[in-house]
Amino acid sequence: MAVKIRLQRHGKKNAAFFHVVVADGRAPRDGKFIEKIGVYNPQTNPATIDIDADAALQWLLKGAQPTDTCRAILSYKGVMFKRHLAEGVRKGAVTEEQAQQRFDQWMAQKESKISGKRDSLKAERKSQYEARMKAETAVKEAKAAQIAAKATASVSNTASAVASTAGTSATASFETGSDTSTATDVLPHLNNIDVTQTELQYYGAGCSAKVQIQKM
């Protein structure tokens, strides 16, 4: 029986995650499996991988064949390197302590790389957020300045209209002759003329006086 280490799909459309399973090579992809040894979620960045390294190593030593994707996952988590060291111990090339020391050193370097990638992604997301907020602030300030300019122009126009109306009212008041002078006051130079009758006729906003006089 050909035993394979492969992925079994779960999750919704466009949001899939996978179980890493050991299954018969003749079984359907999402069918029965022998053992589940991990979870792989490619939706995160970096991808989330949770593997039982010891169980995976035991299946590899028993002859289980991983698919290409599972081989990459196991290599990423150090399982393939651990199998390589186990073969070296079995052949006597290295001791158990040396193999464990090499594996710990490799894992420390790997974790450092992963941590550096996470930090760079976090810094990139932060810079993108700051740039987006800066652009939004600039747009808001420009809009506020535009509204303020319109409000200032409206106030200026209103003030001009009020001033113009006040000037027109003053001129009209002067032209209507609110002064109640008599004909004698209006015509002070006619000393030898006796005013016997005065008729005042008003037309609209203006005032016209018609004076009928008779000589003595």
Shape: elongated
- Poorly predicted sequence stretches spanning 5 or more consecutive residues: 178-216
What separation lies between the terminal Cα atoms?
A: 151 Å
CATH superfamily of the domain at 3-94: Ribosomal protein S16
**How would you spell out the order of helices and strands?**
EEEEHEHHHHEE
Helix content: 40-55%
Task: Quickly give the structural class.
Answer: alpha+beta
Query: Which CATH first-tier class of the domain at 3-94 would you pick?
Result: Alpha Beta
Cα-atom radius of gyration: 50 Å
> What does the main sheet amount to?
5 strands, mixed
Strand content: 15-25%
For the secondary structure, the number of strands is 7
CATH architecture of the domain at 3-94: 2-Layer Sandwich
Number of helical runs?
5
| Assembly status | single chain
Please characterize this protein's 3D structure:
There is one protein chain. This protein has 216 residues and is α+β, with helices and mostly antiparallel strands. Among the domains are: 3-94, 2-Layer Sandwich (S16 Ribosomal Protein, Chain: A), CATH 3.30.1320.10; 176-214, no CATH class. It contains 5 helices and 7 strands. It has helices spanning 53-61, 68-76, 79-91, 96-175, 183-186; strands spanning 3-12, 15-24, 35-41, 48-51, 65-66, 194-203, 206-214. It has a 5-stranded mixed β-sheet. Strands 6-7 form a two-stranded antiparallel ribbon. The relative contact order is 0.06. Residues 178-216 have low confidence and may be disordered.
